[in-house]
Amino acid sequence: MSKPWTYERAGLDLAKYAATMAGIQPLLARTWDATRVVPPPFPPRAGGKGSGGFASLFDFNPDGRYTHPILVTCTDGVGSKLKLARQAGKFDTVGIDLVAMSVNDLICTGGEPLVFLDYIAMPADDPELTRQLVLGISEGCLQAGCSLVGGETAILPDFYALGDFDLAGFATGVVEKDRVIDGRRIRPGDVLVGLPASGVHSNGYSLVRKIIEAANLTVADAVPELGGTVGEVLLTPTAIYVKVVRAILDACGDAVTGLANVTGGGLPDNVARVLPPDCHAMIRRPAQAPVFAWLQRLGNVADAEMDRVFNQGTGFVVICRPTAVAEVLKHGGTVLGEITPGAAGVTIT
Which of 86, 89, 193, 296 is in the most buried spot, having the most CB atoms within 10 Å? Predict the structure, then answer.
């Protein structure tokens, strides 16, 4: 008689799954705003998932601060940067990237992120790997000022190769209806201010990895001009701009007319996304961050290709009235250029 089939034999160990869930619960709770997260009525049971219930509850307007609240939602992943994390054996920062990729988009509406959920998929339960990933996610939520209220850990044997995993994230926020920033108030004469990137962020890693491979470099190799190893440099987590953008909005109000997160497509594509049909952005090429100069030289990449794949050192753009420029610059920005009459688009000179 053949050996009986069980869930564990098929690839999912429920006892290990319960250990995984128990290990990440404190990491969720550290991000909760006790006045807004509605705690579950019962503690999680042995072998249970999440916080003990089937969904999370969050009071997004507990003190009536919003008159006409509009929900804002975003989702994204980390992409093939995860392959470098696997090669380096370092998993506690890509969770920050995961949060950043959604909340940095969300704040382009002028909103504030409230809650975040994650989806982690892997071929077999790995409590320590999951703990490190969720540690990064909870750290990202703390940086963004939002609550990690739950998520899903999917164990998919035969779907992922051993050692592989993937992450997806989902953010929900809120913005007052009359405070929505959608670019329609941008006009000629407005000024573009760039906020610095922390590094490559989480875009363009398919090209990054090919450049590294072609140069016969490993994640352990030193890059003297950048002061670290290949892995350390390329796993620098994405900057989270929530708190600085919220501070700018609080100080400048209606003088901020557009916000752009510089992700895939670089400055040209992402600034163009917020421009009205009759406004053109003239940008004076900002100084290239050292990591991009290194990658460009290593891979013999053309300037135009660098511009349309990477942030080049500018991770976020604030478009504002000239009267607000001095205030925005207090937050570490650099003037990039100005809005001129013309068809919607971006010219970098």
Answer: 193
